[in-house]
Amino acid sequence: MRKQPVIVMAVLTVVLFSSWVSAQGEPRIRNGQAIYEEHCFRCHGLTGKGDGPDANALLVPPANFQTMRSRAKTDFELLTIIAYGVAFSPMHGWRGRLTDDEILEVINYIRTIAPFNPAL
Ligand code: HEC
Description:
mainly alpha
């Protein structure tokens, strides 16, 4: 009888810990995907190839995240571009429109569709 609370606590700890672990992973990506589909996909395309529905109307084509040039960029380089934009291009800075966390989430999502590869 005296051992029961210990077992209950152990089971609870495992359950709580595993839901905490999954909370660290999945919603981050889903949130980044939601932000991407709301704000970025019209230019950059669903798979990041720069072929979104608005891409043809732009004089400066949207970056293709699948290229060697793009995949070799560090997260910090992407962060700077997303936060401050690219001068003289339709890619304006998102600082102020997205929170710092949302910018990190969206970088995380871009890295799932076009993984970082410094060797490319
Ligand atoms: C109006 C169209 C448009 C929208 C919307 C847009 N972008 Fe861009 N983006 C561009 C263009 C154009 C470039 C390329 C600028 C250049 O030639 O360097 C670019 C470049 C980038 C780059 C640099 C990639 C590289 O390898 O140089 C990143 C990262 C990026 N965009 C992320 C985003 C994110 C994240 C969003 C949504 C929050 C977004 N963009 C929304 C048009 C857009």
